[in-house]
Amino acid sequence: MKTIGLIGGMSYSSTIIYYDLLNKYSNEHFGDLTTPKIILSSVNFSIIDELQHQGNWEDLGSLLNKEARSLEQAGAEVLALCTNTMHKVTKEMLANVSIPFIHIAEAAAKKIAKDQYKKPALLATKFTMEEDFYIEKLIEYGLEPIIPKKESRDILHTIIYGELCFNVTTEESRDKFIAISQEVENAGADSVILGCTEVGMLLNDDNINLPVYDTVKVHCKEIFNYIL
């Protein structure tokens, strides 16, 4: 198997899930204790968070570019970013990086289109829901994403950064997320993208009526299939 380079820590809660899933997929595929070689670069999320909310995407791109080049130099043969939001700086991150990159939104879009759904709701951070970088990738695959109303976007963003990124889950927040999933269903969504790597901590197939696409699971499956 090829060596995986992961840029994580955004947040550590979801990066744990990446490590867990990639190893589980390997165990299941081979039927034994085989696990992939993974090189993880875990960044200081407080710096990322501050730059995000300052709108300083230029420095964020430079920061992740250093991490990507470091992973390539360390022997990574494929690169993945363990966060949806920071795919906003994909172009800047990949400057002078020659190894393949597995894009999380592209992995999700391919899977949804293959399953013949058309109008996925996107539940994520405000950066991901309100800016073009992610939505455009979905549209490239013929999808028509549905975005929650502003009040709901605010709720999602606040809970993601205020609770889930600290690995905290509450039933009150779960109920709010479920209500938002019902809102987008009523708005015409035929599926739901858990478009932040932490959202799956609260939402899943058991509490959403529509087909659920957890981007962490979809991304990890795409990464694992690539390294085989």
Secondary-structure blueprint:
Blueprint: E1 4-8, H1 12-30, E2 38-42, H2 45-54, H3 57-73, E3 78-81, H4 90-93, E4 101-102, H5 104-114, E5 120-123, H6 126-130, H7 132-140, H8 150-162, H9 171-186, E6 191-194, E7 212-214, H10 215-227
Parallel strand pairs: 1-2, 1-3, 3-4, 5-6, 6-7
Helix pairs in contact: 1-10, 5-7, 5-10, 8-9
- The total beta strand count reads 7
Please describe the biggest sheet, giving its number of strands, its sense, and whether it closes into a barrel. 4 strands, parallel
Number of domains as seen in the coordinates: 2
Helix and strand composition category: alpha/beta
In the CATH scheme, the class of the largest domain would be Alpha Beta
CA(first)-CA(last) distance: 5 Å
**Shape assignment:** globular
What is Rg? 17 Å
CATH topology term of the largest domain: Rossmann fold
Order of helices and strands: EHEHHEHEHEHHHHEEH
Average pLDDT over all residues? 97
**Alpha plus pi helix count:** 10
CATH architecture descriptor name of the largest domain: 3-Layer(aba) Sandwich
Major sheet strand order = 2-1-3-4
Proportion of beta-strand residues: 5-15%
Low-confidence runs of at least 5 consecutive residues:
none
Percent of residues in helical segments? 40-55%
